[in-house]
Amino acid sequence: MISPEGSYERIFELLKEHHDWMRNSIPLIASENVPSHAVKEAMVSDFGSRYAEGWPGERVYAGCRYIDEVEKICIELAKEVFRAEFVDVRPVSGVVANLSIYTAFTEPGDVMMALSIPNGGHISMGRKKFGGTAGSVHGLKVEYLPFDKDEMNIDVDETIKKVERMEVKPKLVMFGASMILFPQPVKELAPFFKSYGTHINYDAAHVAGLIAGGKFQDPLREGADTMTMSTHKTLFGPQGGMIVSSEKYAESIKKAVFPGVTSNHHLHHMAGKAVALAEMLKFGKEYADQVVRNAKALAEALYNEGFKVLGESKGFTESHQVVLDVTKYGDGFEVEKLLESANIITNRELIPEDVEAKRSYMRPGGLRLGVSEVTRLGMKEDQMREIAKLFRRLIIDKEDVGSVRRSVAELRAGFQKIHYAFEADKEAYEYIRIR
Ligand SMILES: *Cc1c(COP(=O)(O)O)cnc(C)c1O
User: Fold this and answer.
1) Among 7, 203, 205, 277, who pairs with 230 as Cys (CB 3.0-4.6 Å)?
2) Which residues face 427 on adjacent strands?
3) Residues in Cβ contact with 60 at an 8 Å cutoff, skipping those fewer than 6 apart
4) How far apart are CA 120 and CA 203, in angstroms?
């Protein structure tokens, strides 16, 4: 039987071990980042125990005097960061932000267009038969946006042909993706979709921090009506979601978020988002610029070390991501586990080639890397070339895992602090005890 004292102690032991592991690892998961101590402080505040359903000033509960002030600041910062007229900072995750868009702008049974998962789509845009949120929670019929796998992007001409042939036109199109190397053709396709009255959303879950820093693309200026995002991938955390748009869609979005898909909206996360947005407003340009430089440097270096890097014809990447085809060395699962044993943390990924090869998400052919977290640790192009060498030693040269693990720890030793933050001398993975 599980004992209360024993499990209580064990939980804290495991948390500390996790922190030690992160301190000695190279974190390359594209959907992750490391928050500052400032964001963490907001997260452990009493806000995390309170209720504040509704909009600041129109709450369903008393006790929101200070919560309302913080949320108003959070909204103002987000408006500035994304140059948007309206922001809803309440969605508790990127999936909930997308579900709010489905709720606000479609009815169950409507047709939505999005990328399929092997082409970069996210499960929240998925069909019912795959358990996707769009299909199984909101009853949308999902039609795939045609994809050009050499360009690693949405195929504009094929999309136009497909929509023209469709008997029932799409009510909603979701741009954006989980595997996203290049800016998508929003500008090219927005007038076409608008001619059918299709609502255009850009899911910036992955690239929101790059957009905030003025890199990548600017969907709201290119014709997107609304933009959803996660707040912790290229943004500085904490985990959460957000929606930005013009004033015109404000009321529909507010109603969809509350009472639609959230009741209380995790107020400590909201406070953390406010802090992270202030950091983004101050340091976002410099950070986004270095993220993209690092991704390009890592992609080029991996290519030079002998790896198959996707997007070659377009210069590999314009985002924080690098995607490898690792089928030559087994599959994404085996390579992910091998890297993990050397403390290099990545995730396997379905890639376009996997469809014909009938590979599944458990054993796909791809590996996705992201450089947002190592950039926040202060790494630059030189370290990207070192990381690529570690990949070669481990995967191609099949060098002993222990010796690569030691090199990983050596590389990490010089990069333990948080950068692009107001208090820049803080240990990134310090275990903070307040018991
Ligand atoms: C990660 C991701 C989401 C979901 O975000 P969560 O914050 O994990 O709920 C939605 N859309 C895309 C494209 C993503 O990559």
Assistant:
1) 205
2) 417
3) 51, 52, 53, 54
4) 12
Stated length of the chain: 435
Q: Is pLDDT of 58 > 90?
A: yes
* pLDDT category of residue 325 using cuts at 50, 70 and 90: very high
The answer to whether 206 touches 176, Cβ cutoff 8 Å, is yes
For ligand 1, say whether the CB of 205 is within 6 Å of any of its atoms: yes
Q: 3: which DSSP letter?
A: -
Q: How many CB atoms lie within 10 A of CB 378?
A: 17
Radius of gyration of the chain (CA): 22
| Residue in 122, 211, 265 to alter for ligand 1 test, most ligand atoms within 8 A of Cβ | 122
Q: What is the pLDDT of residues 392-435, one digit of tens each?
A: 999 999 999 999 999 999 999 999 999 999 998 899 999 999 99
Q: Indicate which residue's Cα is closest to atom 15 of ligand 1.
A: 178
Q: CB–CB of 217/161 below 8 Å?
A: no
| Ligand 1 geometric centre to CA of 203 (Å) | 8
Ordered by where they begin, the domains of the chain are 40-278 (3.40.640.10)
